[in-house]
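Q: What would this complex look like in 3D?
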Amino acid sequence: NAGVTQTPKFRILKIGQSMTLQCAQDMNHNYMYWYRQDPGMGLKLIYYSVGAGITDKGEVPNGYNVSRSTTEDFPLRLELAAPSQTSVYFCASSQDRANEQFFGPGTRLTVL
Amino acid sequence: AQSVTQLGSHVSVSEGALVLLRCNYSSSVPPYLFWYVQYPNQGLQLLLKYTTGATLVKGINGFEAEFKKSETSFHLTKPSAHMSDAAEYFCAVERAGSYQLTFGKGTKLSVIP
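A: Here is my prediction, written as structure tokens for the whole assembly.
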């Protein structure tokens, strides 16, 4: 099993550009999550999904969109990138609530 | 709203010394509690969790934590630090009935030879 994979690993965007961060898991997990990690701030939940076709906002959803058309994939879309979106983004998945969340290796995004 | 407070953004211990990383939470109902570890340039990895039952939980790599409801605490300990324990540690809380983890800001552990 590859676990949770994320692409790309690094990306530099210009202000106003758009991009999609890809996330895939091969563990048949129902629950998937997107977090952003800023230095000294811990992780903040952006969006989560409890199954294909079902998504909901987390703590910091503004400026982001998600979709979940399959169990395996949970892409995160940034529209009109802003410097405040410079961060490290982690995707995670879990079998159920209160179960271990498995994290991907992260995408380091810089918006200039 | 629930919150998680980790005392000390940076803790240094000598190799072989006790490791104690503090975590306090605020929640209106008993939560699920987690400790995760992050090594440089990697994602997070679960160390241990408390959901119900025994309040002292053991995790990987010799770590353990005790849930103390009266103190709203879930401190992480390890009797003897190893150089490989140097990493950042995050305490997290999931309120029962929620799908969301709330993370503390993290504590970076340094181990001095």
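A: To summarize the key features: Chain B touches chain A at residues 4, 9, 32, 41-46, 49, 51, 90, 94, 99-106 (CB under 8 Å). Chain B has a mean pLDDT of 92.
Q: Very helpful, thank you.
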